[in-house]
């Protein structure tokens, strides 16, 4: 038979809760009920109901069948009891609202921090893109450079045409000089062929 192991405090097992005679109350349920009561106490319906109750109580107790005659001590006791319970219920509702606001504030702050971090990241990325684009020729820059080159070529084209266009009298002189040179070459050839002939120097 296996020996029974002594039951001690072990970290891998939850502790067994002992039997408690105290009643267990769910704080969340109590807070919800108190919030509902406080919301009802702060409405116009409660004011109307309370006013109607007080008026009916006073009228009834002024009659011969009065249960709480003037000065209405029992009514005063009821109102004091109602006020004594309403005050802590309102405080519970306020605490619950404060806790809710605190959680909402923490969520808003965390969301704001994330948005700030994302914004800073996007700003850094945009700055790096601007630096990178500063070294790249943009479409507008290329267009402006090509437009300047076209303008320069259009300005130079008339000047080149003027330089290449020959004059009419220079062309005639060149043709006459060529004819004279041809005749001189022919005369030289004739002298070489016939040494006794006299060259015609009438030109």
TrEMBL record:
Taxonomy of the source species: unclassified sequences, metagenomes, ecological metagenomes
Protein name per its UniProtKB record: Unannotated protein
Region of interest: Disordered: 155-203
Biased composition (Basic and acidic residues): 168-178
Organism whose genome encodes this protein: freshwater metagenome
InterPro entries the record matches: DUF1003
Keyword Membrane: yes
Keywords, in A-Z order: Membrane, Transmembrane, Transmembrane helix
Record field: transmembrane: 40-60, 72-92
